[in-house]
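Hello,

Our lab assistant flagged a job as stuck in the queue for most of the afternoon. It eventually completed. Since we weren't sure the result was trustworthy after the delay, we are filing this so someone can double-check. Below is the sequence as submitted and the structure that was eventually returned. Let us know if re-running is recommended.
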Amino acid sequence: MLTLIDVDGRAHELAASEGYVDAVGLADATGWSLKPAGLCKGEVCVPLLGRRVTDPGDGTRIDLARWAEALGLLLAHDEAEAVAALTPSAEARRRELADGKAPSLTLADVDGNPVSFDDLSGSKRVLVTWASWCGCRHELASWQRIQDELADAGLRLFSVALDNDPADSRPWIEAGHPSYPVAVDTAHVTAERYGITNVPSVVWVDEDDNIVKPPTIAPGDDQFVEFTRIASEQHHEALRRWVRDGELPDSARAGAAVRTDDEQRALAERRVAAHLQCTGRTDAARRHLAAAQALAPWDWTVRRGGIAMTGGDPFLGEEFTSFWEEWDASGRPGYTPTT
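-- returned structure --
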């Protein structure tokens, strides 16, 4: 059996051997069925144009790598450990974001209950991302104050912890007592769909579901301003002007950073690593995490989050200190504030 983690972060068990998977099981898991017109999902069909995705000797088996390539998906596959994960290619993601609309996002809260960013459609909404491996884990109460202040003006917050296990997030969620929805995204679907590479990052979405400000760094308060070098009021004041007056900050005019295929593939490798770690295969997890970190060296959700994943110290440990010094000396890539 193969554990396949799909683009929504869900794990499926499929009959598999030698790089092939059961065609019916794959279709049930992903919604993509092989038909005369090509690979089809609902009304959408991707023509194969002569490419073969089935086993030449057994039409009931699909070549997973060729199938993924035909759909514009990137595949990380550990055949020995029987785990694979998918992410969209950079080009596929660019096409999906071309209309400027906020990607659909339904996750689970710390207790496993579904929560959806989509449910806040029709209001000005802010996606706030954080993690237990970041000092921003202390800021949920600060975001609660912002939500309370601007609720009557129409603002709705949606918070996502980019963690490896809901148990890592629980103490900080319980301490913050948030009334706004808080999800725990162990597969980092949010990071992939919204281009999040560091936390605390925020994304603004208007009443018509348009992304009006791409991800920028926005601390909830000033507990760690010496490290962040970004005053929280810089974002909060801009947020008030947008919510109350419709005025967007200068940073809203900057286009969202576009991931490369390597950076997209890093997220698939990280998903494989997270599954392996969760199932007690730490050595294999470290191999895939190292591959992810080599592909996306400045992605903190991969680098610092990976340190926490495998039991390291993401605050004062030597691995993190070395990474931080390298990143700081390189001009803090990806650490763009709201201006």
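-- support follow-up --
The delay was a queue issue, not a problem with the job. The result is valid. The chain has a mean pLDDT of 95. Residues 38 and 48 are 5 Å apart (CA to CA).
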